[in-house]
Amino acid sequence: MNRLFKDFIIGWIFLTMLFTIFSCKEAEKHPVTHRDYPDIMKSGQLNAVTEYNSISFHAFEDTLNGLHYELLQAFAKEKGLTINITPEMSLEKRAEGMINGKYDLLANNVLITSDREDSLLFTRPILLGKQVLVQRKAQSETDSTYIHSHLELSNKTLFVAKGSPSIYRIRNLSNEIGDTIFIQEVDKYGMEQLLAMVAHGEIDYAVCDEGIAKASIAELPNLDIDTNISFTQFYSWGVNKNSPILLDTLNVWIERYKKTPEFRKLIKKYSYTTN
């Protein structure tokens, strides 16, 4: 087991136990309701959900890190709020928690899709990113598993995290090349675990956010992430449809914070770009 995967498992188990205990206690004290910004300010706490990975939010030794973790901390500091962050691997569970009012804010690399717009409101774009094909580097010039172009994805199986927005792009790509690209959704693993599975030869191909792929490549040097699956896309945060004031507040803060040196340092640190 490589160090990246081992660190992930240890950090994930610790945080899951911690936040499960916390969430149970909070659920006993506060019934689930949809909250807008005035309710959040009155309580002094913002409940955010994110994905546990090296980009969004993760534990390393005795510290918490991550691009979205640091952005949340910056927002909370300005507004005088305490942030309760829940790491949740399942995209579907993150969305479900937003819809039923368990969380106030969905804070990870969220792509705006038509089905999500039916249930969530999205902030102005925070980052730019794209989806990439993850495969092992070619072992020789005749390596038949290595993909050189989209046309070679014909009849190949691509693994993705369950509910991933990359599914829509893969389906469109299948139409573009005029042949079938099979999609295998994985429920219990996130993108970083799929990267490790490709590196170890358990699967041949996965589709992953470019930022997460870049962050993992040093630990998994046999991976190739040079083939783009999508064009450049906007990443935003999401709030419940019953929280328009929170949306407006976040938008004003995002537009202002994106102009600061602190934000530029953050996106450089995590290898992203912005619009």
For the record, give the distance between the C-alpha atoms at the N and C termini, rounded to a whole number. Answer: 38 Å
Which architecture name of the largest domain does CATH use?
3-Layer(aba) Sandwich
Helix segment count?
10
Number of strands: 13
Describe the protein:
The structure is a single chain. It is built from 10 helices and 13 strands. The two termini are about 40 Å apart. The longest helix has 27 residues, at about 5-30. Strands 1, 4, 5, 6, 7 and 13 form a 6-stranded mixed beta sheet that branches. The chain has a 3-stranded antiparallel beta sheet with strand order 11-8-12. Strands 2-3 form a two-stranded antiparallel ribbon. The chain has 2 domains: about 5-130 and about 235-270, Periplasmic binding protein-like II (D-Maltodextrin-Binding Protein, domain 2); about 130-230, Periplasmic binding protein-like II (D-Maltodextrin-Binding Protein, domain 2), CATH 3.40.190. With about 280 residues, it is of the alpha/beta class.
Helix/strand layout:
Layout (H helix, E strand, L loop, with lengths): L2 H27 L7 H7 L1 E6 L7 E3 L2 E3 L1 H13 L2 E6 L3 H9 L5 E7 L2 H4 L2 E3 L4 E3 L1 E6 L20 E5 L4 H12 L4 E5 L4 H9 L6 E4 H7 L6 E6 L4 E8 L3 H14 L3 H9 L6
Parallel strand pairs: 1-4, 1-5, 9-10
Antiparallel strand pairs: 2-3, 5-13, 6-13, 7-13, 8-11, 8-12
Can you describe this structure in just a few lines?
It contains ten helices and 13 strands. With about 280 residues, the chain is an alpha/beta fold. Strands 1, 4, 5, 6, 7 and 13 form a six-stranded mixed sheet that branches.
